[in-house]
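Quick one: structure tokens for this chain, please?
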Amino acid sequence: MPDLVTLGPWLRRFLCEHIVTERNLARNTRSSYRDTFSLLLPFVSGKLRKPVDRLAVGDLTSRHVLQFLAHLEEQRGCSARTRNQRLAAIRAFARFVGSRDPAHVEWCGHIRAIVSKKSMPPPVGWLTRTEMEAMLAVPDRKTRRGCSEYALLLFLYNTGARVSEATQLKVRDLQLRSGNGGHDLAALHGKGGKTRQCPLWPETKRVLADQILGRAVGDAVFISRLGTPFTRFGVYRLIERCAARVPELADRTITPHVIRHTTACHLVLAGVDINTIRAWLGHASISTTNIYAEIDLTLKANAVALCAVGQSRPGRRWKEDKDLMAFLKSL
């Protein structure tokens, strides 16, 4: 008879079977769920002074979960959004257990009754064209390392790719066919296993062609100075280092996602349709893309100018023409 009280077997089924085979969640989501319980279980174990492998389902009380969420914010310095993300994983686990064992339905209800904390979305940071060109000018393209770094920065700006999509890009994902009458494309593997294709600028195509020369189709496109594929941390460090050498960006935090925002904002400024931008960035919903239509002050100023109050209106010429009525009577 399976053990329905101990936490371990339930957690193994949840992480190895339910979210993988039944729900088919994305790899990053599964990693996030795993990390949540990697933090939660030692916390509860310390509170109860009980080994992790002896914890029962009932030991994860709503009080302990609330204490854990407070610990994330106060001790680990996590934001409300991260706190809500961890809570979502715990709720999903409670729903899984409660749907399979009636004895835990009440416990499930207490866990799922914990509310998410209201959080404001962070402001969207982006770079002007001049600032982005200054970033691209930082790598020394006379060296092999500088060419690789320039290619990565240009690719991020061209495609608006997430950092994970750039680090996972393989040689086989590039279609450099413009010489044969085709289009230069990059296939990006995004969230939820979705794949989209982004067109490449001629300059991007040129530098990428140089990067992949002599590589196997299964090799990574972007290689670090150590000869290994770029990692997320490596991309973050590269962008931080380049931004630090641009005086205008000295007091700002520049990340790969800021470059993604920059791509979207520049597409908006170029007059590209918002639905095309949604497909370009790989957003599931156009409501996510709509934030870029609201952040450009130039667009807002133009909109205000169209409906400004107090503007003089053109006079009514038929009133100003004193001879008009006389003309009508003469007909």
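The two ends are 106 Å apart (CA to CA).
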